[in-house]
Specification:
With about 150 residues, the protein is mostly helical. The protein has helices at about 5-10, 30-95, 100-125, 135-150. The chain contains four helices and no strands.
Length: about 150
């Protein structure tokens, strides 16, 4: 939960000193002052939660981007493997044995490497989804629950 009172602490100074018209004792405050303080605290809470949500979404977006990039590299290697398989077929038809066996080995290695790389990248991208700010959502729920408890 976001600490609302922390934002109030820098405005009130030390516990014994309060700005004019500002009291640390809630019992001494008028309804207007209480509503004003609540408005300030809710505003600060909303700004903090929005900032937290944006940061979390950016982090998840970065992880998705990395996963997509790694998958792209894997797919490129897979394409090279398939191209080498085509070259292998050509060499196999044009000669009796040795050159196409070498090309087949290279194609197999590239295809395996590309498949593994694409699988790792896909898994990383999948683990980053959905790009929803889960921690911020939990924090907002805790804040709402705390406010509800205060009204009971």
């Amino acid at each position: 939960m976001t600490d609302i009172h922390r934002s109030d602490a820098h405005r009130t100074g030390s516990p014994g000193s309060t700005p004019a018209g500002r009291s640390d004792n809630v019992d001494d405050l008028s309804t207007v002052q209480l509503v004003e303080r609540l408005t300030e605290q809710v505003s600060q809470l909303v700004r903090t939660e929005v900032s937290s949500a944006l940061t979390e979404v950016k982090e998840k977006g970065t992880r998705v981007g990395i996963g997509v990039g790694v998958s792209g590299a894997g797919l490129l290697l897979l394409l090279f493997g398939l191209a080498t398989l085509v070259a292998t077929a050509v060499l196999g038809l044009s000669t009796a044995l040795e050159p196409w066996i070498a090309a087949l080995i290279v194609a197999a290695v590239l295809t395996i490497a590309g498949s593994i790389t694409a699988a790792v990248g896909g898994r990383r991208a999948k683990n980053a989804l959905p790009p929803v700010p889960e921690q911020t959502t939990r924090s907002v729920r805790a804040d709402v629950d705390t406010v509800k408890e205060g009204f009971r």
